[in-house]
Amino acid sequence: MAPPQGPRAPLEFGGPLGAAALLLLLPATMFHLLLAARSGPARLLGPPASLPGLEALWSPRALLLWLAWLGLQAALYLLPARKVAEGQELKDKSRLRYPINGFQALVLTALLVGLGVSAGLPLGALPEMLLPLAFVATLTAFIFSLFLYMKAQVAPVSALAPGGNSGNPIYDFFLGRELNPRICFFDFKYFCELRPGLIGWVLINLALLVKEAELRGSPSLAMWLVNGFQLLYVGDALWHEEAVLTTMDITHDGFGFMLAFGDIAWVPFTYSLQAQFLLRHPQPLGLPMASAICLINAIGYYIFRGANSQKNTFRKNPSDPRVAGLETISTATGRKLLVSGWWGMVRHPNYLGDLIMALAWSLPCGVSHLLPYFYLLYFTALLVHREARDERQCLQKYGLAWQEYCRRVPYRIMPYIY
Ligand SMILES: NC(=O)C1=CN([C@@H]2O[C@H](COP(=O)(O)OP(=O)(O)OC[C@H]3O[C@@H](n4cnc5c(N)ncnc54)[C@H](OP(=O)(O)O)[C@@H]3O)[C@@H](O)[C@H]2O)C=CC1
Ligand SMILES: CC(C)=CCC[C@@H](C)[C@H]1CC=C2C3=C(CC[C@@]21C)[C@@]1(C)CC[C@H](O)C(C)(C)[C@@H]1CC3
């Protein structure tokens, strides 16, 4: 079976060596952040105050809880959906079908957690279990990625991703070989991208808020803001679930360790870092500052949602009255590119909005520590790298039309800066 990517195709993420380094570095960074957030000095750089023994990492209770969580989210995924959407056209000209019931899963999870808490479920005990939970999530990601790697051995060539099939096992294990691994209607990548990790993230945030209320009588304003902003972000992602079908993760990247670990471990345990930090390092926050931070988040959200919705509306139906008046460039593929509206301001206005929101999530944590700004730093690096990958793919797809777009819209993410 010939690999769809020739041996001389450019490898991403520094090739096999880079992939091997990331296999170790990503989990190590996640545990470093978890330990730093609970330590007094809360240092982002430098070694953690103390290293945990295996007994702090391994807990059968955490394993059971984690498996129950995955099982619950899988069951909610399988419930009847209000809509079934079609994905992008695949190499063999077929389209996969996806249930649109993510927001329903969020609401049902909230109801179940509410019922559990009123029946005596100790939600405030969850923050103490973050370390063993992150450990089992990491183990699950490794085992699951191994399963995905094996499953791809028997997949038809047309089901393989454009990257992730170099022939080097470490590189392919990391990037992922199969584009849309499924068993019947259950799509593993689509499920993982939006359910256990994203909903788990807001549940961890909520548990940290509850724990803070137990410790100090009531949650702090900073904790409310972080919870509110991130709940808006997750609620928005699930409300606009269909839009994820056009992201590069679904249409281009294979499903391997990078996305499996990213979705189920990295997102819930590192994206909740600000709330973890606030639990152990309370920060005073006055109303004027809180209002300014809310304004920053609102501006970021406005740009993020406006840009994403404009592109999705345009891709679904270019004659939709909301986008029909926008200027476009025709490409040889028959698809057009927007050159006015949000997409005429910079080439990735949605990244700009996302980054502004990331800043608003860190500001409630004050400026005494660098740790709560980790997300902003990591996210800037991720989006700059992602933007470069997307540019390469668009240049390949659209050729001269893409060059014309770059000439007319010269800035990538930040007007006049980058
Ligand atoms: N919180 C997090 O950790 C992360 C969040 N994100 C967010 O996810 C969202 C999706 O990001 P991502 O999938 O990277 O990329 P985009 O949603 O920006 O999609 C890029 C694609 O859009 C199309 N496109 C580009 N320019 C134009 C144009 N001018 N007119 C019309 N179509 C255009 C091209 O695809 P085509 O032409 O084929 O349609 C291109 O490949 C973003 O808001 C991002 O911020 C992303 C990563 C991580
Ligand atoms: C460092 C590391 C482990 C990298 C893996 C990256 C993943 C964590 C991210 C890749 C793309 C993502 C997206 C979202 C979450 C993070 C990951 C999985 C996303 C679901 C967040 C909510 C947004 O509204 C979104 C749906 C647009 C977004 C899609 C991409």
List key phrases describing it.
steroid metabolism; lipid metabolism; binds the ligand CC(C)=CCC[C@@H](C)[C@H]1CC=C2C3=C(CC[C@@]21C)[C@@]1(C)CC[C@H](O)C(C)(C)[C@@H]1CC3; two-stranded antiparallel ribbon; sterol metabolism; oxidoreductase; 2 domains; mainly alpha; binds NADPH dihydro-nicotinamide-adenine-dinucleotide phosphate; Delta(14)-sterol reductase TM7SF2; 418 residues; globular; 59% helix; two-stranded antiparallel sheet; disordered N terminus
Count the strands? 6
Q: Please give the order of strands in the largest beta sheet.
A: 1-2
How widely separated are the two ends?
Answer: 43 Å
Largest sheet composition: 2 strands, antiparallel
Number of domains: 2
Task: Tell me what portion of residues adopts beta-strand conformation.
Answer: under 5%
Task: Compute the CA-based radius of gyration.
Answer: 22 Å
Instruction: Tell me the structural class.
Output: mainly alpha
Low-confidence stretches: 1-8
Describe the protein's architecture and organization.
With 418 residues, the chain is mainly alpha-helical. It has two domains: 16-39 and 57-86 and 97-282, no CATH class; 287-418, no CATH class. The chain is 59% helix and 4% strand. It has 16 helices and six strands. It has a two-stranded antiparallel sheet. Strands 3-4 form a two-stranded antiparallel sheet. Strand 3 and strand 4 form a beta hairpin. Helix 3 (60-78) packs across helix 4 and helix 8 packs antiparallel against helix 9. It starts with 14 loop residues before the first helix and ends in a 10-residue tail after the last helix. The relative contact order is 0.11. NADPH dihydro-nicotinamide-adenine-dinucleotide phosphate is lined by residues 246-248, 304, 308, 311, 314-315, 335, 337-338, 343, 348, 350-351, 354, 382, 386, 390, 393-394. The ligand CC(C)=CCC[C@@H](C)[C@H]1CC=C2C3=C(CC[C@@]21C)[C@@]1(C)CC[C@H](O)C(C)(C)[C@@H]1CC3 binds next to helix 7, helix 9 and helix 11.
